[in-house]
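If your schedule permits, I should be very grateful for your opinion on a structural question. Kindly check, if you would, that the fold set down in the tokens agrees with what the sequence suggests. Thank you for your consideration; the sequence and its tokens are set out here:
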Amino acid sequence: MEKPIKSYSTKAQNLEIKDLNEGSREVAIYLAKFNNLDSDNDIIRPGAFKKSISERGPNSATNRKIAFLRYHNWEKQIGRFTELAEDENGLFAVGKLGNSTIGNDALNDYKDGIIREHSIGFKYIQDKIRFVETDNQGGGYFEVLEVALFEGSAVTFGANDETNVVDVSKSEDKDAKIDKIGAEIDIVVKAIINGQGTDERQYSLEMKLKYLNAQLLTLAKIDPFNKQSIKSEPNEIIVPFDWNAVIKGING
């Protein structure tokens, strides 16, 4: 059995915040847990994040580092990760909150206990997933050996890759949501084409485009009167939309 693949997925787990240092504006957290069957029928194994940490972690040479966000929003970078490492429990992180308005808001939300959970934004790697058959309900689970990690996000409530999508209750809402995402995609594509700003800005734009694309693909499959329709068929592979062709078309 193959797992449906998107260019950008999210996954949340209710993991305790280990420590908050208000003076240094640092928070110690777990972004993911190992060897735990989650709501996506996944078990993430140790080693799944090592390549991403090596290539895009705090100590890597790249400018395209794993980002510290709020609600998976690439326009809301609340700080930066100063430490990312795997331990016996899962993916451990230390994030330093920025002095911006959204950084200060996040610090206050941590202090007040409003931020209680965290979620990761990532991409599954097809040949790093295997289906393990069992006698349990569902027939088995997906063993995840490696992912491409883009970001870790602070979330107020438990989040998943359908957040802000599955609450569409009627076709008019669905159409409006599609129009809104389409408009956002148009803005991001034009910004990428203009090519202004730093490499970090371009990377943020590319990641936002991936996230919006994933939402649009999910929304296109939803029957607004049947929320179960968000579930992909077991053998279905979601092919990312070819935005390079869109950009070339705009360039003429």
Remarks:
- Residues 9-155 form one domain.
- The chain is about 30% helix and 30% strand.
